[in-house]
Specification:
Blueprint lengths: L11 H35 L3 H4 L3 E5 L5 E5 L1 H7 L2 E2 L13 E3 L7 H4 L8 E4 L8 E3 L1 H4 L1 H18 L6 H21 L3 H8 L2 H4 L4 H14 L3 H5 L6 H4 L6 H16 L2 H18 L4 H40 L9 H22 L7 H34 L3 H16 L8 H15 L3
Parallel strand pairs: 1-3
Antiparallel strand pairs: 1-2, 2-4, 4-5, 5-6
Helix pairs in contact: 1-6, 6-7, 6-16, 7-14, 7-15, 10-13, 13-14, 14-15, 15-16, 18-19
Length: 440
């Protein structure tokens, strides 16, 4: 098949590499990105304000990464706003504590108690009790989403032999080109010219392009055009100075859209852009558009919608349990996990909807189907006429020729080496012609 990458078989290598990448990035995100993101979000909202800073000190303890605590003004002056020391009981007053390090804490040593792996947040605006967040429950979904996004981007850039998304994109290019051929009846060469990027089309032999365009033009005559007094022929709009790219992208695509359907034209445009991606893998969205619009939205739209509703149901249950006080306000990890799960699924559904093609008006679809069926009917009538003509020739004017041919052939075999009466051959020939013509 012309165009696109060489078709790569999707198998164990691509899936294994993709899985390893998702898990690896998710672990890194959970260890580095999540504490950084959580602290960057929480700290500006609940840290001491300007008026409070005049009464108390606030220090970042850099020895324990992502840890802040309130102190007296004297201790702050001694340690500075950023201390190289770790947090200790003698340095903090316990009013503000933001600990996203995930390290275990003991009241005797650090001034507060916390289990290893959890985040500890305490501020007056959050109430008297500290907020304990379990990142494995609250943020693991987010980490896997980050891993999945990184996997998609990286494997799009990799060769199809090892990159999962690259192989899927390449496979989809071949699949859509096959669909275009089936829907239009055009040859491989014509479909190749229709889906070539503009710069590549300019390099194709002009005579080859003209022949392809002429075939498309003659096959895309609508009923309205046939009934019109003024018919535009291909030679009326084509000359040696015609810009092939502009002519294809406007005149040819428009005729395909009117004669076949808007969906065929969209498939051709998407394939053309995807073939740009095959030459420059950093054109990620050109390849992604074809895959999402022609494959993912068709096959997985309902599944994504179902998952989004399932996530909403889980969120409602979690909020309901929280309302019944079975989930304490000081431990909101399940609620946060449910919110992030639903956010991820709704985001996926939004992306799917963005790439879903708009439904075409029913009247336009019926009109195009009528034109297409009428065109096929005329072609069948023409074939039927040709067959009738051939049959009449066989049993009519050409019967004497057929008789002579059959007679000579049979005579050649029946009289070979023996002098058998040639009248036998003549009688057989007459019988065959009478049978063909339907005479008794």
């Amino acid at each position: 098949m012309a165009g696109g990458n060489k078709h790569a078989k999707i198998g164990f290598v691509q899936y294994f590499l993709a899985l390893v990448m998702i898990i690896g990035v998710a672990v890194v995100a959970q260890k580095i990105i999540v504490p950084w993101g959580a602290s960057s979000f929480v700290l500006p909202l609940f840290e001491p304000t300007g008026d409070e800073r005049e009464k108390i000190g606030f220090v970042e303890f850099q020895a324990d990464q992502y840890v802040w605590g309130s102190t007296s003004l004297e201790v702050q002056e001694e340690l500075g706003n950023e201390s190289a020391k770790g947090i200790e009981k003698e340095y903090i007053n316990g009013e503000f504590i933001f600990d996203f390090s995930g390290q275990a804490r003991e009241t005797k040593v650090h001034g507060y108690s916390n289990v290893a792996g959890n985040y500890y947040i305490k501020a007056p605006k959050l109430g008297e009790s500290a907020i304990i967040i379990e990142p494995l429950i609250a943020f693991s979904i987010l980490s896997f989403v980050i891993g999945f996004i990184v996997m998609v981007i990286v494997t799009i850039l990799l060769p199809p032999a090892i990159g999962l998304m690259s192989a899927l994109f390449s496979e989809q290019i071949h699949h859509v080109q096959t669909n275009i051929r089936l829907q239009t009846g055009f040859s491989n060469e014509i479909v190749d010219i229709l889906t070539l990027p503009g710069k590549k089309l300019e390099q194709v032999d002009r005579e080859r392009i003209e022949n392809a365009f002429r075939v498309i033009w003659s096959r895309s005559v609508t009923e309205a055009e046939k009934g019109s007094d003024y018919k535009v022929s291909f030679d009326d709009v084509w000359d040696d100075d015609t810009d092939v790219v502009f002519f294809r992208d406007n005149a040819i695509y428009q005729r395909i859209k009117e004669f076949f359907s808007e969906f065929v034209e969209v498939e051709i445009n998407n394939t053309k852009e995807a073939r740009i991606w095959t030459k420059n893998k950093f054109q990620i969205f050109k390849g992604l558009k074809l895959y999402m619009a022609q494959h993912f939205s068709h096959h997985y739209s309902n599944k994504v919608t179902g998952l989004a509703y399932a996530g909403a149901a889980f969120l409602i249950i979690a909020v309901g349990i929280r309302g019944l006080k079975f989930i304490p306000a000081a431990k909101p990890s399940i609620i946060m996990g449910a919110i992030l799960l639903e956010f991820s699924l709704l985001s996926l559904m939004a992306v799917t909807l963005l790439y879903t093609q708009e439904e075409e008006r029913t009247d336009k679809m019926l009109k195009r189907m009528e034109d297409s069926n009428r065109s096929q009917l005329e072609a069948l009538k023409g074939q039927s006429h040709d067959i009738n003509t051939l049959a009449n020739a066989l049993v009519g004017q050409s019967s004497d020729i057929i008789k002579a041919k059959v007679e000579n052939t049979i005579s050649e075999y029946l009289t070979s080496g023996k002098e058998v009466n040639s009248q036998i051959a003549s009688a057989i020939a007459d019988k065959i012609v009478f049978d063909v013509s339907g005479k008794k």
